[in-house]
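Researcher: I need the complex structure. Ligand is zinc ion. Inputs:
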Amino acid sequence: MHYKIVEKSLFARIARMVLKSSNVAMVIGNKIHLSGVDKHTFERDEGWLAHELCHIRQFQEHGYFRFLWLYLKESYNVGYYNNKYEVEAREAGSKHKRHQAATKKETGNVKPSGLPLPSDVKKEV
Ligand SMILES: [Zn+2]
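Model: Output:
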């Protein structure tokens, strides 16, 4: 899949300050904006990468502005955690876990941030 990574993104940094989180990955179109995590660390984390790539696919599938609208509407209706686009991305991210010998039942530790954009934080292990 075609995607671009923006390290030390200003957008992601603002999100990070709002969220008081140590890291944020935020997808806008085909770009993954990072703050608090570098490209290398992020791409090595297959589950996290798969989660954000799923958001990129959603942007492509629904169209840029239409997806932003749908995402916002979905969050408004059912909340960020149950937002179907987040549910789908979490599933995409947790598939990788199954290949690895992980025994945890948890579906990945990437959490939607609650912002009106597909942005996610990763809990420190
Ligand atoms: Zn997400």
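Model: Summary of the prediction. The chain has one domain: 4-116.
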